[in-house]
Amino acid sequence: MKTGDIIAFKTKALWYNPLTYLGPIIRKIAKIKYNHVGIVIELYNKKFIFEAVDKGFLAKSLDEKLNDKKHIKSYKVLIPIYKFNENTLREEAIDLLSNKYDFKGLLFNQLILNLFNVWIGRNNNQKNKLYCYEAVFFLHREIFPDWWKTKPQEIFNNKNFEIL
Questions:
Q1: pLDDT tens-digit series, residues 28-54
Q2: Residues 135 and 107 sit within 8 Å (Cβ to Cβ)
Q3: What is the pLDDT of residue 75?
Q4: pTM, whole model, 2 decimals?
Q5: What is the b/e burial string over 5-16, where b = at least 16 CB atoms within 10 angstroms of the residue's CB?
Q6: Among 81, 111, 135, 162, which is disulfide-ready with 130 (CB 3.0 to 4.6 Å)?
């Protein structure tokens, strides 16, 4: 795996953690198999996954994330097959660190978009609050120009990514 690769996760619902119930709900409403995504970033010869989670946009060791059997049921890797500048993507991902999580975008805007195919969210590209798919779409916005109002399933149907 290398900078720019996307990892799509199917997370577990844990009976003692109600926040984890969102995973199956997201999969059902968005009609996707994977409810969470992150992006691989290489820094100083180490691989990290940058992801938007409830605490914000964070970086974590890629190995640690992939070996988290407590929370992860399965995952798929999506490899970009279009040309992009890895250094620019890396710098932009680093710039997103510490951004807040976009709960409203996930819980309301994406819900309405997926149920009724109507976008009710912001009509600009503010990146100060992001949910996971939104962050990945932002970082690959050459492919997803309207990244802030893109449905999660669009990444799996996109010819610019090879699914492993």
A1: 999 999 999 999 999 999 999 999 999
A2: no
A3: 97
A4: 0.93
A5: bbbbbbbbeeee
A6: 135
Domain ranges of the chain: 6-163
Residues 6+ apart with CB under 8 A from 19: 54
CATH superfamily of 6-163: endopeptidase domain like (from Nostoc punctiforme) (3.90.1720.10)
